[in-house]
Amino acid sequence: MALINLVEKDQATGRVAEIYETMINTMGLIPNAFKVFSPSSHVLDVQFGNLGYFMRHKTLGGKLLAFIRLLVSEQEHCVYCVGMNSGILMQYGVLPEMMPEIINDPSKAPLDEKDLAMLLFVLKVVRNSNSIEQPDVDKLRSLGWNDTEILEATYHGATQVGVDKIFNAFKIESDR
Q1: Hey, which bits of the chain come out as E strands?
Q2: What pLDDT is attached to residue 141?
Q3: What is the pTM (predicted TM-score) of this model?
């Protein structure tokens, strides 16, 4: 049970009710990952907007983004997000038996060179943002990433740290 009161569907009003209805219509459920933000319609709206934006991103693919979330969440010990993103990656053909090796050495993630470089960059930022230098960014540019994509992938990883901390702090349970 979460440590804060989550708004259930039958209690939702205003923007929270609108977002819940959209989630039910598109996903068939309201994940606890979104219910945790329900006490603040503003925070829920921001998270919901981020979900939609990144799900439709033209160049940061779902597999890359799921690896970013998984590996950041593994570092933050967020059981909910590790489980959720492991499941998403299985849909991309990443088998459960592959996960320990990838978690131990993210350079083993089954991504092309361009996506792998972005993944490793974002993980470096999350581990030690002060360690980033111009050659790190130049390498991504040389592989075809532009500054918008570099910033957005980094934003995705950095915000995942915050999400993981919220989920852990308020003891969010896995969806049933």
Answers
A1: none
A2: 98
A3: 0.94
- pLDDT at residue 175, as a whole number: 82
134: number of Cβ within 10 Å? 7
Domain boundaries, the chain: 9-55, 62-169
Quick check: 158 and 125 in contact, CB under 8 A?
Answer: yes
Q: State the residue for tokens 């319609």.
A: 41
End-to-end Cα, the chain, rounded Å: 13
What are 99-124's pLDDT values in tens digits?
999 999 999 999 999 999 999 999 99
* C-alpha distances out from residue 48 to 127, 159, 172, Å: 26, 13, 17
Measure the CA–CA gap between 175 and 157, rounded to whole angstroms. Answer: 22
Name residues of the chain where pLDDT drops below 70: none
Asked if residue 65 lies in contact with residue 32, where contact means CB atoms within 8 angstroms, the answer is no
SS3 59: coil
DSSP category for residue 49:
H
* Distance in angstroms (rounded) separating the CA atoms of residues 76 and 168: 9
Domain 62-169: which CATH number of 3.30.565.10, 3.10.20.30, 1.20.1290.10, 3.40.50.720: 1.20.1290.10
Yes or no: say if 32 and 170 are a contact pair by the CB < 8 Å rule.
Answer: no
Would you state the pLDDT for residue 1?
A: 83
